[in-house]
Amino acid sequence: MTHTILVADDDAAIRTVLSQALGRAGYDVRVTSNAAALWRWVSAGEGDLVITDVVMPDENAFDLLPRIRNARPNLPVLVMSAQNTFMTAIRASEKGAYDYLPKPFDLTEMLNVVKRALAEPKKLAEKGEDTGENMPLVGRSAAMQDIYRMLARMMQTDLTVMITGESGTGKELVASALHEYGRRRNGPFVAVNMAAIPRELIESELFGHEKGSFTGAHSKATGRFEQADGGTLFLDEIGDMPMEAQTRLLRVLQQGEYTTVGGRTPLKTDVRIVAATNKDLRQAIAQGLFREDLFYRLNVVPMRLPPLRERAEDVPDLIRHFFRLAGEQGLSDKRITADAMDRLKRYSWPGNVRELENLVRRLAALYPQDTIGVDIIEAELTPMQQENPAATLAEIPEDTSLGMAVEQYLHRYFEEFGDSLPPPGLYQRILHEVEYPLILVAMTATRGNQIRAAELLGLNRNTLRKKIRELGVNVYRTNRNAN
What we know:
Number of domains: 4
CATH topology of the largest domain: Rossmann fold
CATH architecture of the largest domain: 3-Layer(aba) Sandwich
Strand content: 5-15%
Distance between the termini: 38 Å
Number of strands: 14
CATH class of the largest domain: Alpha Beta
Strand order of the largest sheet: 2-1-3-4-5
């Protein structure tokens, strides 16, 4: 049976590309430039799958999607958009789209999604509330598109999510977005920072305690699990949780109930767990600092947030966003010159988005001029680089070999410890640091094609798959000609 694909896009070039690619793949294709014709086809029962742009000359696809759902609930709809924001992905999911693809898209990926949608039509998600245009996450890079799509798929589930990433990448912001746009949005969002609680009080903080259960327990106290009932419990810096608390947390995840410190009556819990860490938990497991069984309970859906240096193209959008926030707080808006912006994009941002936000606030508060030039940016970045020697690694001369660059980095790293030595396990940590970007860049260069990437790296395909899974590599299927 030959499937018929309905394509709606105002751009004639995109209609042509899709028509040719889908035709070569063996599909019948019908194309249109407006929503009215698309709706006539759908309402007449034509087509097995729809591919549509969001913005059309006569109607927005997000307004059309509910009508398509009501008329033909099992018809999969793929939404495309050049407005590659977090809210676009979320609205596509909420309106019942099968999947969302940012423009420019990779044809191979598009065909794979079409094949999957036709083979196993996805049950459309329940209609959610209109979320408006308040974007909790900013960025249009390929790395962030991967995050947006994963978040959109997680919104209608209660699966446990493990967010990893360097400090300042926005882990709590992502956890909050999972809650605010998910099925538990009407419940509480409770965040706990494991690193900020004294070790001896963590169990009491999480599970509550009875009066007199320990010295200083003058009254009964509720724990964070009880406070988060019906909502989301965000366990930040989970890698700093002491082993005894890990054992209790594992029991809660296994049994769905817990007892307060000093209590005897089991209490049922109904929370979604989202955990986050900037540590390598597999390394912690090898060192006996984290329970392996707890790791697998928490790592149901792994989500790695890319550092800012891996998505430098998002820097201008982030700067505009932070200047707007500063303006709402009474600070002056500024304009960044082109050469100053280029300098900011080349900086490696060891403090990631948080460091960038702090810089923008300083620029808004301390400088009277409306236009910020490269001289001011250099003056701001120089002391930051002196405090973070690793920040200069991105600017190592081009003729420096990889071995020399690693040696320079290690010298600086050892200097940070003075007369002491770094923590044990340095060999595996360095291999991990090198292996991750190697595989990531290879997968990006081959646009997510694992066979080509394995050949490029000289690895067996099964070995590559295993390393992608173990290292948590996000496979970005980007279009090389996107720029």
